[in-house]
Write a structure and sequence with these properties.
111 residues
Length: 111
């Protein structure tokens, strides 16, 4: 398991990633994600566990109000989203929030 945190450390999750590394890296082109510029990777709900900071998470929704975009209310860092497509089957997590990952060193990005 890898630790995923926001900038201030108030929000923390555990994520299980594939042993071979990221299977898919994504830069979403929806109106909010393209402005954020985050690199995301999908994880199944059973591979994502919020361990602290539920009370600090702020939910942002727009348009169809299906996708759920979560960010820390203290530091403003977007940690994960539950996207409109595959809403019940996947979380998209912010790769830069994963401990030990430098998004500038990723060799292949993005689909």
């Amino acid at each position: 398991m890898k630790k995923l945190t926001c900038h201030c450390g108030g929000v923390e999750a555990e994520v299980k990633l594939p042993e071979k590394g990221f299977e898919k890296l994504v830069r979403c082109n929806c109106s909010i994600c393209k402005r954020k510029g985050y690199i995301m990777t999908p994880v199944n709900p059973e591979n994502f566990k919020l361990v602290k900071g539920q009370d600090l998470l702020t939910l942002y929704q727009y348009h169809t109000k299906v996708a759920e975009h979560y960010f820390c209310s203290k530091c403003g860092i977007y940690t994960h989203t539950n996207p409109r497509s595959n809403h019940d089957k996947v979380f998209m997590i912010n790769v830069a929030c994963i401990e030990g990952i430098n998004p500038f060193e990723l060799k292949k990005c993005c689909n």
